[in-house]
Write a structure and sequence with these properties.
The chain is mainly β. It has two helices and 20 strands. It has a single domain, classed as Umud Fragment, subunit A (Ribbon), CATH 2.10.109. Strands 1, 2, 7, 8, 16, 17, 18, 19 and 20 form a nine-stranded antiparallel beta sheet that branches. A four-stranded antiparallel beta sheet has the order 11-10-9-15, with no helix packed on it. Strands 12-13-14 form a three-stranded antiparallel beta sheet, with no helix packed on it. Strand 10 and strand 11 form a beta hairpin. The N and C termini lie far apart (88 Å).
Length: 261
């Protein structure tokens, strides 16, 4: 009677195919975890413009919590032949975790071109009546307190320095800094231009930049729908000064909601 060999362990496969399968088995769970986190939870963004100075500087990299207000099926950009822009597959919410509040800094799909990401501060929520007079916000007929602090040297994306006025604004209990031009307000300093109040519709927020006279925001193009919001920005995790060609280490892990110089 012939005996049969007992096999204690599987013999390792050989060849390129086996190597590729092993790489997938080893790294695919980690890759999937990173993709899921980036899609539904956290995503980094770089600040390319000066519309949020002094809160955010050009070259800051911020962390955005995409689950701050809920879990959403993400946008899909589909390129359609013979069309100049991509077609947007609409989002829908899987889990509601709340709504944006006044003072939140949000990243959103630009309403006039949803292939672009913008970052601004929420200054009015659904049902609010908003008016801007000499760059001061009025909500539901009440002026939001602001106090002049000092002159601030603002640096734009061409490394030009502009002298501005820095204010401390209290927006519904949240204090933050903002800027206006030293030589007088810009074309959006008084809005709406007819002196009326604008009512924010349901399911929308009204946003503005902290660099009031140098921000293309809701005063130009209206409101942001909830489904266009990608998430709430929380802190700076890295910052690069392209004018000085150096890292701004003092901005690492800077909260966007605490007053610091």
């Amino acid at each position: 009677m012939s005996s049969t060999d007992l096999i204690d362990e599987e013999k390792p496969a050989t060849g390129m195919g086996a190597w590729f399968v092993e790489v997938l088995r080893t790294w695919m769970p980690a890759i999937l975890a990173v993709l899921l986190i980036r899609t539904f939870i956290f995503e980094p963004f770089r600040i390319p413009s000066g519309s949020m100075i002094p809160t955010l500087l050009i070259g800051d990299h911020v962390v955005v919590n995409k689950a701050s207000y809920g879990l959403w099926v993400p946008y899909t950009l589909v390129e359609v032949p013979f069309m100049e822009s991509a077609w947007i597959v609409p989002r829908f919410e899987l889990l509601d975790l709340g709504d944006p509040a006044r003072g939140d800094i949000i990243v959103f799909r630009f309403p006039e071109n949803e292939a672009l990401n913008y970052i601004k501060r929420v200054v009015a929520i659904p049902g609010d009546k908003i008016q801007v007079k000499n760059n001061q916000i009025f909500l539901n007929g009440v002026a939001q307190e602001r106090k002049y602090l000092d002159r601030y040297e603002s640096i734009d994306d061409s490394c030009n320095v502009t002298s501005t006025k820095r204010y401390l604004e209290n927006l519904d209990g949240l204090e933050h800094y903002n800027l206006t031009n030293a030589g007088g307000g810009g074309p959006l300093a008084n809005w709406p231009r007819d002196g009326s109040e604008f009512t924010v519709p349901e399911g929308n927020v009204f946003v503005m930049g902290d660099n009031r006279d140098n921000s293309e925001d809701g005063r130009r193009w209206g409101t942001v729908r909830y489904d266009q919001i990608k998430g709430k920005a929380h802190f700076v995790w890295f910052s690069w000064d392209s004018c000085e060609q150096k890292v701004r280490a003092n901005r690492f892990f800077k909260s966007l909601y605490k007053l610091t110089e």
